[in-house]
Design a protein that fits this description.
There is one protein chain. The chain is α+β, with helices and mostly antiparallel strands. The chain has two domains: 4-133, N-terminal domain of MutM-like DNA repair proteins; 145-268, Helicase, Ruva Protein, domain 3 (Orthogonal Bundle). It has six helices and eleven strands. A five-stranded mixed β-sheet has the order 2-9-5-4-3, with helices on one face. A four-stranded antiparallel β-sheet has the order 1-7-8-6, covered by helices on one side. Strands 10-11 form a two-stranded antiparallel sheet. Strand 7 (94-99) and strand 8 form a beta hairpin. The radius of gyration is 20 Å and the shape is elongated. The two termini are 30 Å apart. The mean pLDDT is 96. It binds zinc ion. Residues 249, 251-252, 254, 269, 271-272 line the site of zinc ion.
Amino acid sequence: MPELPEVETIKNELKPFLINKRIIGVKLENKKIIGYPKPKDFLKKIINKKILNIDRKGKYLILKLSENYNLTFHLRLSGRLIYDENLEDKVKYTRIKFLFNKGTLSFSEPRLLGRVYLYPVDELPKSLSSLNNLGKEPLMPEFNFQYLKTKIKNRHTNIKSLLLDQKIACGVGNIYSDEALFCAKIHPKRKGSSLKDEEIKRLVKCLKKIIKIAINKKGTSISDYLRPDGKVGSFQKYLKVFRKEGERCIRCNGKIRRIKINNRSSYFCPNCQKEV
Ligand SMILES: [Zn+2]
């Protein structure tokens, strides 16, 4: 569930606490949380590495460590990173905890789908090879009309699924694709190839606008997502269609509907977003 705005918020808010901190210990609660390398090697190699910077690529959070190592987190659906200045064990579902001289970083993940990876910068593990194939992110200047048109013009897949494809709109997930399609007045089931130039232009604009506001509002706390200090984001107050089935459309007073596309719920206004 954490999408680009949530992971960007986590990055921004962890930075002041984590940069220049040295990892002096690790408390591993569940081995499954480690995606790479083997837990034994992970625990050995991580010790004494210093956090130099924090990056984000799509929905991945990348801690740049000393000795040219990356510590990469993929939060998946319910993963949380909680920083705690004190050493209290108050974070539920903590699967791994990093200890510093002062403070701890807990990776909590109720569903155990998220993973953490440790690897030398130039030796990306196979399980992370998708990091090399990510598309442009909506806030990049290169994410423009030409870019999106090239990506979708020959595709007979629906636009909702195309937006969820990380090779096309990197960082976009279920929430922001629904909100952007509503903003651009495009039905989620329209085929990529059927979109007119005007619609693609609107969609690019809407994606940029919504992602930008969502970052300003520190993300959407609608199910599991919390910020590193345990506080909520506030973009949920600005959602127009996502999880609003049966509610009124703010534009036309129509009723918001929910449909399943590739097994995932999609919310839209059938009046503002026509299928043909
Ligand atoms: Zn409407």
